[in-house]
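Lecture notes, part 5. Sequence design as translation. It can be helpful to think of inverse folding as translation between two languages: the language of shapes and the language of residues. The source text, in structure tokens, appears below.
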């Protein structure tokens, strides 16, 4: 059974998390200044999440992705709980990536506040883990 009950819940949780990063006074500015459009192709449940300098979008968009990542919702959940690192997920092909991973790896330190917040979000939604 998938961690997220449906696409709507997954968008609410993951989209909300990314929105918090974009609103973060220091890290949000750094992320926006990087100018990256990141597209997440999610499965189980299926959905598409975009993280752009202008905000978080869902579904098909008329945008060009600088980086595109395909992964299961369960993999995203484990990543945010820090049970799985991005390099390990890439090596195990739990995340398949296209585009500049060098740019993404530079952004990883900006995610620290989100990693700290996610366990409380997970608890709020009664997610396993």
């Amino acid at each position: 059974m998938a961690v997220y009950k449906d696409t709507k819940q997954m968008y609410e949780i993951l989209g909300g998390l990314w929105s918090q990063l974009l609103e973060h006074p220091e890290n949000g500015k750094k992320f926006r200044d990087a100018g990256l459009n990141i597209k997440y192709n999610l499965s189980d449940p299926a959905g598409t999440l975009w993280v752009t300098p202008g905000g978080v979008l869902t579904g098909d968009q008329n945008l060009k992705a600088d980086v595109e990542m395909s992964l299961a919702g369960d993999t995203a959940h484990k990543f945010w709980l820090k049970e799985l690192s991005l390099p390990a997920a890439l090596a195990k092909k739990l995340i398949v990536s296209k585009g500049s991973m060098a740019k993404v790896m530079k952004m990883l330190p900006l995610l620290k506040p989100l990693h700290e917040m996610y366990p409380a979000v997970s608890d709020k939604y009664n997610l396993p883990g």
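The translated text above is only one of many valid answers, since several sequences can fold into similar shapes. The helical segments are 7-23, 27-34, 73-80, 86-91, 101-107, 112-124.
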